[in-house]
Design brief:
- This protein is an alpha+beta fold.
- The chain is 55% helix and 15% strand.
- The chain contains 18 helices and twelve strands.
- A hairpin with a 5-residue loop joins β6 and β7.
- It starts with 5 loop residues before the first helix and ends in a 7-residue tail after the last strand.
Length: 421
């Protein structure tokens, strides 16, 4: 060292600071990499991503190598700075050089490279992965020894590899990732992904068509009434019952009925011959399970029953799809027949309107973890059946009861924008 001129020592010193910045920045960059994007790039053939992925599979080796290199160059830089200080100003200059070197290393070898690496991890990590792959092979004996000593000390503290965090995302974490996707994922696609994640939380009871709204062919009617019903129906598969909905016969495809009508063969006997046995679904069945059951049994609809076997409603495959992709329309007031917008900005709502439909389509912040209809929500809130002209504030929404019938709220008026930001 005594033969090297001061200018040469300064050049070496600044080179060591550069290497320190490389180790610090590349460490941050590699640890900041998005593991899922990294896996995608690696599978796509990106060489830098492949090597980065290989290095991150054994993070203890990578960290050991980075710390070995970083500490080595920092100690060397400190020693060189002391030597240069002695040459230039003697012993009094050592304190000045120590403070100056600390400031330079902190700014140029730590803060700046780590901040840049955090903002642009792939730009730093992928080129660095090529360097570390070579360095790891060259320094393998030293890295192995450091790791063995580290393992022994960690084992004494009762820490093992089994304590490592699991990188797998649960459904709530995945929901956060989807919500934070921002401009990378259109809002419609985010809503669809959230809908898929919600399938395990929603049950058949939540999306079913209520029992009192189910229509179908009543075999106790005369053939003319059945024909009139078929001419006005828009359903593909029609429920068939005899006398009441408690006496279900099954389902029949509208196409079969139309064919019989065209051939003038529509009779109750022919209808019965083409009826398919009903498919029953327990009311607590999750939509994920329901979708799998529909696919397995090749069904398009099912009757929702309670624990006593009584029919509570009807659920269709279309209901399932709408939970994922939303209603098949962009106008919320046309997608829900139970809602009618008024000129003053208020909405007339049928008491039987499904709360989940109102929340999803109208974007009203109503609770959905209790009653399934807005009538049920009002009755639960008041703990009684309200009289017409009763007003209340429900979930910060002013509501006026307009009509009641058969011990339930028939029609109500809601002011969704009043008193709300």
């Amino acid at each position: 060292m005594s033969d090297i001129p001061t200018g040469g020592l300064l050049t070496i010193l600044f080179s060591l600071i550069f290497f320190s910045a490389f180790f610090s920045g590349s460490e941050t960059a590699l640890m900041m990499l998005n593991r899922y994007r990294l896996k995608h790039l690696a599978e796509s053939g990106h060489l830098g991503a492949q090597r980065a992925q290989t290095l991150l599979e054994t993070p203890e080796r990578l960290i050991g190598l980075i710390l070995l290199g970083n500490n080595f160059v920092n100690i060397m830089a400190s020693a060189l700075a002391t030597l240069v200080a002695l040459r230039i100003g003697g012993e009094p200059a050592i304190a000045i050089s120590t403070g100056l070197l600390t400031l330079i290393v902190l700014i140029y070898a730590e803060v700046i490279p780590k901040t840049f690496a955090a903002l642009h991890p792939e730009l730093i990590a992928f080129p660095a992965a090529h360097v570390y792959t070579v360095l790891l092979k060259l320094a393998w004996p030293i890295v192995w020894l450091i790791n063995r000593i580290t393992y022994l000390h960690l084992r004494l503290l009762g820490i093992t590899n089994k304590d490592a965090a699991n990188n797998a995302l649960n459904s709530e974490e995945l929901r956060t990732v989807v919500n934070e996707a921002g401009a990378m994922l259109p809002q419609e696609n985010r809503n669809m992904l959230i809908g898929v994640l919600d399938l395990d939380k929603i049950t058949a009871e939540d999306i079913m068509i209520p029992r009192n709204e189910i229509s179908g062919i009543d075999l106790s009617d005369n053939i003319d009434e059945i024909t009139e019903f078929l001419r006005g129906t828009h359903f593909t598969r029609i429920l068939v019952f005899d006398g009441s909905i408690d006496n279900i016969v099954g389902f029949i495809h509208t196409r079969r009925c139309m064919q019989m009508m065209m051939r003038d063969e529509l009779t109750k006997e022919n209808l019965r011959a083409h009826i398919k046995q009903p498919y029953y679904v327990p009311e607590g069945t999750s939509l994920n399970r329901l979708m799998n059951n529909f696919q397995r049994d090749r069904r398009k609809n099912g009757l929702v029953v309670d624990e006593y076997g009584d029919v509570q409603g009807l659920v269709t495959f279309a209901n399932l799809i709408e939970e994922i992709i939303g209603e098949f329309t962009t106008d919320p007031t046309t997608s829900i027949s139970d809602v009618s917008r008024q000129n003053d900005g208020s909405y007339l709502v049928n008491g039987s309107a499904n709360l989940r439909d109102l929340v999803r389509t109208m974007h009203w912040n109503l609770p959905t973890d209790g009653p399934k209809t807005i009538n049920g929500l009002i009755i639960e809130h008041l703990e009684s059946i309200p009289e017409p002209n009763t007003s209340l504030l429900l979930a910060s929404y002013p509501i006026e009861i307009l009509q009641t019938e058969d011990n339930m709220v028939k029609v109500l008026r809601i002011q969704p924008d009043l008193y709300r930001n």
